[in-house]
Amino acid sequence: MMGTAFLLSPATRVYGVMVVISGGVGVWYGLVALRQARQDRYDLSKLFEGEAMPEGGDGIEDKSGYCAVCGAYIKSPYEPCPKCGAAL
Predict the structure, then answer these.
(1) How far, in Å, CA of 64 to CA of 81, rounded?
(2) Beta strands 65-66 and 73-74: pairing type?
């Protein structure tokens, strides 16, 4: 709108053309960026890109945990903490 006001006056016509062109380029760039963002969001062709995740790992056993009081490692959640005696 500001560009059209500048276009009406002969003294500021060059500035009006620059404002209209820059606004058009901005709208075009925004639409292209929006289209790419929406297109990439659910693109299943990119599902298997990148490095493969490891199958398994050497980690803590499933039934192990940490004491909520002192933070010591507990092998079984059914036994009290060996360090402070608190239940898991």
Answers:
(1) 11
(2) antiparallel
Beta bridge partners of 74: 65
| Location of structure tokens 């901005």 | 26
Distance CA 49, CA 16 (A): 47
User: Which residues face 66 on adjacent strands?
Assistant: 73
Count of alpha carbons within 13 angstroms of residue 27, beta-carbon side: 6
CA 16 to CA 5: how far, in whole Å? Answer: 7
83: pLDDT strictly greater than 70: yes
Query: Does the reported pTM lie above 0.90?
Result: no
Kind and range of the H or E run holding 73: strand 73-74
Report the C-alpha gap between 86 and 69 in whole angstroms: 7
Name the amino acid, one letter, at 52. Answer: A
Distance CA 74, CA 41 (A): 42
Q: What are phi and psi of 65, to 5 degrees?
A: -170, -170
